[in-house]
Prior knowledge:
By secondary structure, this protein is α+β, with helices and mostly antiparallel strands.
Amino acid sequence: MRTNNRFLHIINNKKPVLVNFHADWCQPCKQIQPIIKEIKETLKHNIRILQVNVDDNMYIAKTHQISKVPTLILFIEGKIKWRGEGIYGVAELTNILKEYIPDI
């Protein structure tokens, strides 16, 4: 429960949060990690990146209906603004985020 409360506190913040739902055993999840890292480094002033391992956080994964990994969800003030599954390139993901976060 504490983890869920912390998660809710983070996603309800004013700063947009991109959550990467992943699993250690997932090969595509490993492939997207460098992309997520680059997004984090490039946009660190405009967005927070949160990594959620679905095996360690089953309640959070179930609550957000995560059936495939990787799944990315963009939260702005606690509301889901965008959701995607699979691998995205840096430029593609940046363009998606720009649609929802005007200051990027």
